[in-house]
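Progress note, sequence design subtask.
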């Protein structure tokens, strides 16, 4: 029997002591961090959803006003007739203001109209506006800024929002 004990002892010495069981603490730290990060991301998505809706609504208001202005231009060969009074007749669910007055809501469009140029601005939220600018013979130009007037929209020069 001594030989068996020596054999087992030699085998144990060769393999070394039993390894210490590992902790799975690292797994739980990583899993917990990912869970907290995911929850934060979901909260941020839902918290900013109203802003995305406001931006889409403002751009839609400007596109409808643009369509009405282009119809007026095709009838009269001038953007000058696409003033707030005539646009309100064509798009009754939007309110239109002269170019020097500020837009104060998503359905309130400030319009600047002249013979060769037409521009409009809509307030998305306080201090944030979207612009559209049309010139005869050119593609529409877009912009954004803090001043919500049709006159400020005349400076819009970007090819897209």
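Output:
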């Amino acid at each position: 029997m001594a030989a068996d004990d020596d054999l087992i002892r030699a085998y144990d010495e060769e393999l070394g002591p039993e390894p210490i069981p590992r902790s799975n603490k690292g797994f739980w730290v990583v899993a917990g961090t990912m869970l907290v990060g995911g929850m934060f991301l979901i909260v941020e998505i839902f918290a900013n959803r109203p802003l995305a809706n406001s931006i889409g609504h403002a751009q839609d208001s400007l596109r409808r006003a643009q369509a009405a202005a282009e119809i007026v231009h095709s009838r009269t060969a001038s953007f000058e007739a696409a003033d707030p009074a005539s646009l309100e007749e064509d798009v009754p669910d939007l309110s239109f203001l002269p170019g020097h007055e500020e837009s104060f809501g998503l359905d309130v469009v400030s319009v600047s109209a002249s013979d060769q140029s037409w521009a409009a601005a809509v307030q998305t939220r306080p201090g944030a506006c979207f612009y559209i600018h049309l010139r005869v013979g050119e593609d529409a130009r877009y912009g954004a800024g803090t001043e919500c007037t049709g006159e400020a929209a005349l400076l819009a020069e970007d090819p897209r929002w």
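The mean pLDDT is 90. Work on this subtask will continue into the next period as scheduled.
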